Amino acid sequence: MSTRRLTGSANDPHIRRRYRAEKRFKAYCIGAVGIAFAIIVAFFTDIISQGYTAFWQHQVQVTLEYNDRSARLGQFALDSDMRDIASRGATRSIPLEMEDNPDLMGTTDQRWVPVKAEIDQYLKHGHDLPAELRQQVDALADSGRIQSAFNTRFFTTGDSKLPELAGIFSAAVGTLYVLGITLVFAFPIGVMSAVYLEEFAPDNKLTQTIEVNINNLAAVPSIIFGLLGLALFINFFGVPRSSALAGGLTLGLMTLPIIIISTRAALRAVPDPIRQGAFAMGCSRWQVVRDHVLPSSLPGILTGTIIGLAQAMGETAPLIIVGMIAYIPEAPSGIFESATVLPAQVFTWASEPQQAYVEKTAAGIMVLLAVLLTLNATAVFLRRKFERRW
Amino acid sequence: MYSEATTESPETTESVTAMTTGQTDTSTQAQTAGTAEKNVKVKAENVRLWYGQTQALHDLNLDIHENEVTALIGPSGCGKSSFLRCLNRMNDLIPSVRIEGQITLDGEDIYHPDVDVVQLRSNVGMVFQKPNPFPKSIYENIAYAPRLHGIVNSRRDLDELVEHSLKRAGLWREVSDRLQTPGTALSGGQQQRLCIARAIAVNPEVILMDEPASSLDPLATATIEELIDELKDRYTIAIVTHNLQQAARVAGYTAFFHMGEIVEFNDTDTLFTNPREQKTEDYITGRYG
Ligand SMILES: Nc1ncnc2c1ncn2[C@@H]1O[C@H](COP(=O)(O)OP(=O)(O)O)[C@@H](O)[C@H]1O
Ligand SMILES: [Mg+2]
């Protein structure tokens, strides 16, 4: 009797329909995952295929002559037929070099210097060149005097109006400065606010209002924080425009609610019996927090902070307003100096007309993504490593 | 302080005695003199407690005798834990609580404005229902509070105190070779004994236990009960339990709570064999609760 009831059901149209609906729903879900995954793959393929060439740069072997003329203008150190091929940037510093080191006068030096961006693009992607120049380049390439080499310059120099010289270095330094300031500003304030709200504050109308407002703050569009930063830090406190300090503080405003919210979540995850036990041992509230609650919740706090910083790092909108999206070739050497950041550099390159900046843009995005992924991986690692089971 | 030397390690006891601030322990003397009647260690008079508008305790009066185990029994929700938390002022942590009446420890009002709760709580230790060792090493679990309160000065004294406390709690032999492992990695029963060791380490006079064995298996429960029996020689113990056999086994005195009142308080034998009140009889014969 019971077996018949169990097996007979397979032919029941209701049940068959139910199974079909289930299968269909599962298929939709798989389709959704497929689409999401395809978008990610397409994105990475596009960026990498456009950008990887920026990590290589063609160089040409030239003979530099240190003489009277090149002491005035670096270009004259080159053979006249090389002047159209070698980057102007390669000889720009020769007069200075000679001033610093007078012994150079009358000597020659053979070295590899970057080729001009148009020629690099021609060699990489076959972009158009005047016929005469093309023949010259082909001849040099055939004789082995033009070669492709890893573009270390990309990682060691700042932005440049000569694409073959432009690098990500000063933007990376700027990002470090800005994030450093964001961290120094937002971490202590955020953690202490969270500790107060979670561990000390009485539960009353005032704290509830503060709580709601902090939660709302996390949802405010980032450009608004830029306006606030402009009004508060630049106009009121007189922080220099475009400086790492202005940018860092502005992003700090934005990161603050994220840190507060994640810290509170981490504190709340510490089970109450731990606090009770500590109180029963005669701890004051501060000792309970310092010795038991904070150590236990530190991984969670750090994870939240890293995620907040990663978010701040990718931010451009508020930085436009405080003047950090601009042509800033020099790496800042202090927090008051003009600086730019990685996403701002990407933005600047993306708006340049020359072909050579296209690959720079993509390469900049790759660097930015690599740093972001590293940050997020660190957060995941911290969470995994210190995850506590109570 | 410890007139009876520990069998485990005489030197340890000595050093701990040296560390504790000298307090004369009249009861121990009385005990050795053979006096049957014990001192009252903790005295609660007309204790009333409200959670917000709801009154949870009504005019409680209770004497907790020195070097005795006093059991608090009664159906759940009758206010046993609330009362116990009054004795080390853990209720102060609940914002809505209001307490009236008087509770004295050795005749000293523990709710007097001048009383320092840190001082009070290091004199009145507490062990909770669910073992709650700190997420630190076994050593740190015990060393934490003495170091915090400045009870010991040198590393050597601290080592000795840790060993001594673990021995008192009957845990030393099981953990002596792994003091640096996390306290949370121990079994439930071991964790609870670690919590007892932790409470002992600050050298309290009274230990409050809120259903200390209710989350443990029968074997671990038996170990805890034996331990409580040993501890009463040095400490005054108040224990909440819902296990009547446990109360009968470990306690010299028992108070029966019902709906925020103490219905009956007597020595355990009398209360269990010859209760004065009908409610008590109903409860211990299992008619309700
Ligand atoms: N923190 C609290 N806030 C409000 N009411 C509480 C709180 N703790 C206990 N109570 C109430 O007080 C009464 C006594 O509780 P409790 O002391 O925990 O009883 P027992 O330990 O005997 O089970 C119960 O009605 C309970 O709901
Ligand atoms: Mg209880």
Automatic annotation (TrEMBL), chain A:
Record-level GO BP terms: phosphate ion transmembrane transport
Gene3D superfamilies: MetI-like
Main location: membrane
Pfam families documented for this protein: BPD_transp_1 (PF00528), DUF3333 (PF11812)
One Gene Ontology molecular-function label: phosphate transmembrane transporter activity
Transmembrane segments: 25-45, 168-197, 217-238, 244-267, 306-328, 362-382
GO cellular component, one term: plasma membrane
Family matches, as SUPFAM superfamilies: MetI-like
The keyword Oxidoreductase appears for this protein: no
Membrane topology: Multi-pass membrane protein
Keyword set, alphabetical order: Cell membrane, Membrane, Transmembrane, Transmembrane helix, Transport
Source organism superkingdom: Bacteria
Domain ABC transmembrane type-1: 172-379
PROSITE patterns according to UniProt: ABC_TM1
Location of this chain's protein in the cell: Cell inner membrane; Cell membrane
PANTHER family to which the protein is assigned, alphabetical: PHOSPHATE TRANSPORT SYSTEM PERMEASE PROTEIN PSTA (PTHR43470:SF5), PHOSPHATE TRANSPORT SYSTEM PERMEASE PROTEIN PSTA-RELATED (PTHR43470)
NCBIfam families cross-referenced by the UniProt entry: 3a0107s02c
Similarity comment text for this entry: Belongs to the binding-protein-dependent transport system permease family. CysTW subfamily.
Record-given protein name: Phosphate transport system permease protein PstA
